[in-house]
Amino acid sequence: MASKKRRTEAERSHILAEARRERERKLKSYRERALRMFPWVCAHCGREFSGKRLRELTVHHKDHDHDNNPLDGSNWELLCIYCHDYEHSKYLEEEWHDQAPGGGEQEPPATYRPFAGLDDLLKDKK
Length: 126
Fold this sequence. Notes:
Oligomer: single chain
Order of helices and strands: HEEHH
Helix content: 40-55%
Shape: elongated
Number of helices: 3
Number of domains: 1
Mean pLDDT: 81
CATH architecture: 3-Layer(aba) Sandwich
Radius of gyration: 25 Å
Strand order of the largest sheet: 1-2
Largest sheet: 2 strands, antiparallel
CATH topology: His-Me finger endonuclease fold
CATH class: Alpha Beta
Strand content: 5-15%
């Protein structure tokens, strides 16, 4: 029974390793293409990268679809890890608040205006 359990664990580890290799291959392919196409500069903050720091430069999919990898790179932009996290956190916050991504007009969060008549009160004092 122990050998059967080991085989299933071995099978699981083999499947996981294969999935990781496939993911790495996929990431490497469009990452390498993006690094060849674009300058090594974060598209948001403008920070430049080279050498060992190049690993901090990530490929961001503008439409958030990781399977959409056109050969011309029109769905990509290079972002540093910090700007990339910020970009994704914007969409998470909008989902959290049930707002459509991409901005648009928003209602003010509160309707009460505590200083609405302050101008009139100050004018009377002068």
